[in-house]
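Researcher: We plan to redesign the surface later, but first we want a full-length starting point. Tokens attached.
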């Protein structure tokens, strides 16, 4: 497919261990042609002396990269007081993964998007999203609790949550940038600032504006790294996903994280106490409400942006006779395989 071709030219993408340790004989419901199935069946291993654990470009530890790219400016990884044990474990799991992610992020940063092109550089945009899907799956399959779920259920959860997780990641990344440096701009996963005023397509521009409204709402909440991470887990562990056979286990995990998030936000409520008299007052919860509820109230907005993005991608794919995303993980997530529907 066009996206598959440009993706292979941009970077030779491999995720963690290339060795598949689970065979379809043990999981007869899995389709061997599924990229997602192959990824979830891989064993996640990272030798302690693996060169990916070090940023070879400047010789610094990838932990430095992790702290400066994913943590808030005022967040101290060594400060574990008043953080529920479950959130601490989620942070440790995420930190271990981010340190293996450095090389892939460096490759993604080489991708450049040109919004002034008539097609909005759609091939490059889709290729970037395809790479982010790989990273998202790789993050999920090594995450705490997720590894304990059967692979076929993992696939169902990922297909239900992928777009919202990607959007939450992008929002978090943008919230770490000073607001004044990205006015009317989307901070792409490759670090590029995309000025929405350069977008030619009205539907795409409207989607971008809605996304930036979500970013501004989360900025006002002053959400912190543990809250961001917990939100991703709550989206991923959805016991109501159709077809899952371990609903009780998934619901138990969701409840644990929900309780831990509620406890954390009670002790770390940094929302602004100043009054809000702007036109967005009805959209942004005030400080009088618990921060926990404020964060959860933003999930429908994230879901709406995700649904609009999926519709846009499907429309673009149809304009290319359904071949644009054929054979890509992005296309598989977007449209699904017949055997997994």
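Model: Full-length starting sequence:
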């Amino acid at each position: 497919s066009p996206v598959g071709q440009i993706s292979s030219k941009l970077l030779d993408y491999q995720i963690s261990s290339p060795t598949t340790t689970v065979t379809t004989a043990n999981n007869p419901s899995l389709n061997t042609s599924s990229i997602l199935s192959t990824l979830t069946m891989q064993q996640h291993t990272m030798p302690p002396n693996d060169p990916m654990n070090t940023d070879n470009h400047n010789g610094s530890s990838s932990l430095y990269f992790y702290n400066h790219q994913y943590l808030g400016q005022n967040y101290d990884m060594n400060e574990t007081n008043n953080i529920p044990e479950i959130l601490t474990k989620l942070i440790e799991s995420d930190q271990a993964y981010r340190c293996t992610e450095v090389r892939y992020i460096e490759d993604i940063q080489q991708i450049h998007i040109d919004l002034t092109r008539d097609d909005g550089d759609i091939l490059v945009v889709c290729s970037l999203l395809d790479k982010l899907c790989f990273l998202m799956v790789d993050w999920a399959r090594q995450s705490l609790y997720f590894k304990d779920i059967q692979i076929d259920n993992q696939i169902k959860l990922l297909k239900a949550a992928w777009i919202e997780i990607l959007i939450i990641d992008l929002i978090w990344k943008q919230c770490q940038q000073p607001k004044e440096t990205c006015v009317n701009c989307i901070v792409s996963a490759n670090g590029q600032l995309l000025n929405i005023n350069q977008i030619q397509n009205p539907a795409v521009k409207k989607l971008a504006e809605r996304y930036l409204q979500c970013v501004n709402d989360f900025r006002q909440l002053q959400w912190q790294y543990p809250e961001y991470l917990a939100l991703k887990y709550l989206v991923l562990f959805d016991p109501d996903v159709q077809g899952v056979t371990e609903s009780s286990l998934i619901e138990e995990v969701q409840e644990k994280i929900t309780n831990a998030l509620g406890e954390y936000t009670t002790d770390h409520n940094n929302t602004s106490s100043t009054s809000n008299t702007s036109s967005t007052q009805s959209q942004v919860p005030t400080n009088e409400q618990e921060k926990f509820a404020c964060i959860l109230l933003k999930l429908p907005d994230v879901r709406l942006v995700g649904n609009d993005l999926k519709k846009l991608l499907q429309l673009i794919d149809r304009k290319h006779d359904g071949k644009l995303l054929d054979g890509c993980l992005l296309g598989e997530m977007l449209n699904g395989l017949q055997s997994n529907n």
